[in-house]
Amino acid sequence: MIWFVAKRLLAAVPTLVAVLTVVFIIVRIVPGDPALVILGDQATAEATEALRARLGTDRPMLVQYWSFVTNALTGDFGSSLVTGRPIIEEVGAVLPHTIDLTLASMVLGVVVGVPVGIWAALRRNGAVDIAARLLSLLGLSFPVFVSGIYLLLLFGLHWRLFPVIGNADLSDFGDRLHKVVLPAVALGLTMAAYITRVTRSAMLHSLGEDYIRTARAKGVPWRRVVWVHGLRNASLPVVTVVGLYVGILIGNSVLTEIVFNRPGLGKIIVGALNQRDYTMLQGLMVIYCFLIVVVNLVTDLLYGVMDPRVKQA
Amino acid sequence: MTMRLRAGLLAAAFAAFAPAAMAQQGTLRVGMAAQDMGRLDPHYAVSTIDRVPMPWMFNGLVRFPPGSIDASAIEPDLAERWESSADGRTWTFHLRRGVRFHGNYGELTADDVVFSLRKAANPQTSAFSGDFRAIQTVEAVDPYTVRIVLQENVPNLLGILTNYAGGFIVSRRAVEERGEEFKRAPIGTGPFALDRITPNQSAEFVANAGYFRGAPQIPRISYRFIPSDASRDLAFQNSELDMNYGRADQTWVTRVRRQQGVTVDVFEPAELAIIHLNVTQPPFDDIRVRQAIAHAVNRPELVRWRGPDTSREGQSVVPRGYQGFSADNGLLPHDVARARALLAEAGHPNGITVRVIHTQLPEMLAAMQVLQQQLRRAGITLDLQVVEHATFHQQIRQNLSPLVYYSAARFPIADIYLTQFFHSRSIVGTPTAVTNFSHCGMADAEIDAARVSTDRAEQARLWAEAQRKLVGAVCGVPLIETLLVFARHDNVDYGYQLRGSMSLGPQITEASRLR
């Protein structure tokens, strides 16, 4: 197991380097100058040149690349070009919010999506199935910036159960829980819709297999047939989708973060891109890639738990 | 457990959380349309979000009275009085005694003032170094006296030294001790000190009990970064914010004014939008084409579109109300038939198509789309290449767009606007470039002479002449002036009437209070 984890982490290194190289090149090819962003439109050309020299953005690309890679290897991602704050500090300040939102949305997605998917599969083409399919389609088509605003209008403004400003005090667990509810619902419902559809289709496939017929012929209770024989075999595609979706959630929750005024990784990635904050983008990409690698690794490990036939070697 | 009981428990659980989250007694909560602050060093505060809190933390030698941007009303701030030599080249400022910096950074002395002004004048340490070009020396005569010698006259030295841009005074010891850290933890003398900044969330300020004008009545300010307009509006409506950065848009202003207990302040300085036409590039190297553009523009329609409460027609290449502004400049009226005739005369009977680079920022893009429709009526097609905002700023400085839509507010003296946008020294792509996109330089002599003139009437005449020349040559076509908007609940009393603010947001002073 340890060897498997170590091997997977080592295999991620080339991926990490490749992604970083691509990001490094792309952010510099795109027009735009961080010095102009920092100095504004009244600065003289002399001041702009001076700042470029101080930021190091006037150095040859290869020199900048080498310095970035060597610093990154020692864990030093530098400071934001715009705010001057260390990148680790910036990411550290928002990461707990991102993790809260991702976990809460994932839990909600699984808790709602899996049972509804199973129920729909068991009532194939019945009223429940049609309703689940319709609702999941609605969940997938409803953008978060629309559902988010409706949730804020209803639960924030009308019933005043939740605050509109969602940046929680990290030292207060109750506050964190309170403020993650609405964004997790907005994000989690989309995920639930997706998981419902995948679970339904995997269960339908699984319930049509010979081992289900055998189990029923042996007289195994129906509840056990569904939850143990059916669901366990249908769980692989569901776990795959959840793993993939968690990766997407980490970076793509930007709209949720903006609508609910939550800090988060997605929001700072977009901000860094708009401001041409090269160092911040690079640092964020390293961390983002690392998180994706970890999520994929956990997904792979879960395969083995869900289905012993899957060998970890 | 019955459904009703469950619902009741749920509501009770949330109600237990809610009061703590929503009530924060004694804290002024300000919502700002931004994701995060940039650098907190006042000499790098260039964006609106960075400018707004600067006068909360810092003072200048002199200041605009709170709520005003009237350059003729500038009053003492850290300097209690000043005098100038007969030729206007030597200025002596006498500092207040007993002014203390935040924290343990001691009393303000002439040494801090000299250090701050030299820092602001140095392109290595300031974004506003260009404003200090005329200053020859700054020196401390004694711990409470500062002497400034100019190498040439400037229209308003006091203007450069106000609590705005490069005029803010910082603690020398704090800058030297903190180094790079200073831009994250600045030290000033203002009514509020920075307590902490949480990236992407908020900046928290605490009252400076030792403030030289008296302890502020508001104990804390929470300056919150909320980029989504809709969410910020909801938070304001839900009383989670006391003040809200507003949109300069009639629908927004009308809607928010209808809310009970809310005041919407519309204030100066207005941003003047001008379309700059590059006179060195076809088709705008032909003045008839430029005149056609000027005739095709319909300013009253632009004001109707944006709203009469928040905008007004541009009347010159300098915003209204700036010292030296002149409306007597021969601005061409709206006349589509004349525009078409001029185009035909210039050899374009079927109209022209111009490829224009423009930003995707929603407010600027919408204005450009209205303009695009107006020009289309005269046979002028703008082929808009919409790019991301940072790209726009870079590409227009590389002369990639013969027509540039640019909206800006500057220090309210004609010299700054004219120099930055229409002096040949500021032409983009040159070593001394600022924002001259039209490449015009025909008013250089008047702009330079007005800057150093000590005769106010002559200075005004020269600025008026410069505007006549630039408008006559159609270097730029003024479009619309857009004012600033902030909304506040009636529990917020600024302690003055907000008519203008050079920091682009309401000043929170020692007299401001939460009712």
UniProtKB/TrEMBL annotation, chain A:
<feature type="transmembrane region" description="Helical">
    <location>
        <begin position="101"/>
        <end position="122"/>
    </location>
</feature>
<keyword id="KW-0472">Membrane</keyword>
<feature type="transmembrane region" description="Helical">
    <location>
        <begin position="134"/>
        <end position="157"/>
    </location>
</feature>
<feature type="transmembrane region" description="Helical">
    <location>
        <begin position="280"/>
        <end position="303"/>
    </location>
</feature>
<feature type="domain" description="ABC transmembrane type-1">
    <location>
        <begin position="95"/>
        <end position="303"/>
    </location>
</feature>
<dbReference type="InterPro" id="IPR045621">
    <property type="entry name" value="BPD_transp_1_N"/>
</dbReference>
<keyword id="KW-0813">Transport</keyword>
<feature type="transmembrane region" description="Helical">
    <location>
        <begin position="177"/>
        <end position="196"/>
    </location>
</feature>
<dbReference type="Pfam" id="PF19300">
    <property type="entry name" value="BPD_transp_1_N"/>
</dbReference>
<dbReference type="InterPro" id="IPR000515">
    <property type="entry name" value="MetI-like"/>
</dbReference>
<comment type="similarity">
    <text>Belongs to the binding-protein-dependent transport system permease family.</text>
</comment>
<keyword id="KW-1003">Cell membrane</keyword>
<dbReference type="Pfam" id="PF00528">
    <property type="entry name" value="BPD_transp_1"/>
</dbReference>
<dbReference type="GO" id="GO:0055085">
    <property type="term" value="P:transmembrane transport"/>
</dbReference>
<feature type="transmembrane region" description="Helical">
    <location>
        <begin position="234"/>
        <end position="260"/>
    </location>
</feature>
<feature type="transmembrane region" description="Helical">
    <location>
        <begin position="9"/>
        <end position="30"/>
    </location>
</feature>
<dbReference type="InterPro" id="IPR035906">
    <property type="entry name" value="MetI-like_sf"/>
</dbReference>
<protein>
    <submittedName>
        <fullName>Peptide ABC transporter permease</fullName>
    </submittedName>
</protein>
<dbReference type="GO" id="GO:0005886">
    <property type="term" value="C:plasma membrane"/>
</dbReference>
<keyword id="KW-1133">Transmembrane helix</keyword>
<keyword id="KW-0812">Transmembrane</keyword>
